[in-house]
Amino acid sequence: MKQLIKPNKLNVGDTVATISISGGRAGDDDLLWRYLLGKKRLQNVFGINVIETPNALKGTDFLYKNPKARAEDLMWALKNPNIKGIIANMGGDDSARLLPYIDFDVIHDNPKVLMGYSDITTLTIYFAYAGVMSYYGANVLTPIAQPGSIDSYTEKSMHKTIFANEIIGEVLPCGKFTKIEWQDKRSEEIEWTTNTGYELIQGTGTVKGRLIGGSGGPLRQIMGTFVYPKESEWKDSIVFLEAYSPYNSVLAGLHELRALNASGVFCSAKGLITTNLNKEEKEMLLRFLKYEVEREDMPVLTNIDFGHRTPMTVLPVGAMAEINCEKQTFSILESGVS
User: Fold this and answer.
1) Of 125, 126, 122, 151, which is closest to residue 138 (Cα–Cα)?
2) Contact 38/101 with Cβ under 8 angstroms?
3) Cis bond before residue 218 (omega within 30° of 0)
4) Contact, 243 vs 274, CB < 8 A?
5) Could you tell me whether strands 169-170 and 134-136 are parallel, antiparallel, or unpaired per DSSP bridges?
6) 3-state class (DSSP) for residue 201
7) Which of 128, 154, 122 is nearest to 140 (CA)?
8) Going by DSSP bridges, is the β-strand pair 176-177/193-194 parallel, antiparallel, or unpaired?
9) Phi, psi angle pair for 10, to nearest 5°
10) Left if phi > 0, otherwise alpha if psi is -120 to 50, otherwise beta: which for 102?
11) What's CA 36's distance to the chain center, in Å?
């Protein structure tokens, strides 16, 4: 993968725009309170001024029917000189529909922090195509607006990755995790599980490569389009993948991996990091790599904190990273912003 333009870091006092670039639940009556909580958190914890893009709070029905309006929000935020960064309110399932309305020159000529996860995968690919680094990390509704308070792990990762321009270094596993919680609960009502740390399921030595990946479903939706990374762009990369069971089906997960492999993802990547895998998912992935891809040599480090649970690290797409198999560590070898 080519080296990407790094946006400038965010600073206290900067104006950041929130955007509903995929799902529109932030503006729905039953979740507007959640958005307002997340907005308040961003302002109080990070010292930034938060505004909404023009259509961000128009709700699910309007935004589903108007993908052009969502794309116009992105272009508006990028071209507005007063806005220094953009954070997605939530994921969803159809940001691929924005493609006809994206002006890639606007992205390239106005490099700014864009952060989100899940369906925001598609936007990180759009940004990479335009030559700009983006950030697979927290959305506003979750985990920034997690009931009780924003967890310290997510907060520190955001500070380290998008508010500071020093080398990020080793990314430690979180101490505890919890499921994404949509109910309005107090801190003491949240159930946390002690984390067992990273697990190396195959591989030896140390590998380095640029980070590329995301959630498999959004990647599949843009396969065959001109923005989808060519096989050469997966070469020598470290792929990050939310390797779980879509629709609670390990078979669907296998089909997802096969589709990604057919597009060139696994044949020449240096390594793979995934989210937490259960026993069945682990066995499926290892069988796939051995018998279908013939990549038993590829280091695979699992249980990295970037998926659909809280807390969440921030991964700068296109940054140089490292998997050390002997130490079972994952590191980002450069700063996330300039």
Assistant:
1) 151
2) no
3) no
4) yes
5) unpaired
6) strand
7) 154
8) antiparallel
9) -85, 150
10) beta
11) 22
Q: Would you mind telling me the total number of residues written for the chain in this entry?
A: 338
Sign (positive or negative) of CA dihedral 22, 26, 31, 35: positive
Q: Which helix (H) or strand (E) holds 126?
A: helix 121-130
Query: Which pairs from 43-49 meet CB under 8 Å and 24+ separation?
Result: 45/150, 45/155, 46/10, 46/12, 46/158, 46/159, 46/163, 47/12, 47/13, 48/10, 48/12, 48/13, 48/14, 48/15, 48/16, 48/85, 49/13, 49/14, 49/15, 49/16
**Tell me, what DSSP letter sits at residue 289?**
I
135-160, pLDDT tens digit by residue?
999 999 999 999 888 999 999 999 99
Q: Does pLDDT of 247 surpass 90?
A: no
What is the pTM for the complete model shown? 0.96
Say if residue 100 is exposed, middle or buried (CB neighbours under 10 Å; 0-12, 13-18, 19+): exposed
Measure the CA–CA gap between 189 and 226, rounded to whole angstroms: 46
User: Could you tell me the two tokens for 298?
Assistant: 């590829």
pLDDT band at 297 (very low <50, low <70, confident <90, very high): very high
Domains along the sequence of the chain with CATH:
15-166 (3.40.50.10740), 187-332 (3.50.30.60)
The per-residue pLDDT for 228 is 97
CA gap 15, 81 in Å, rounded: 10
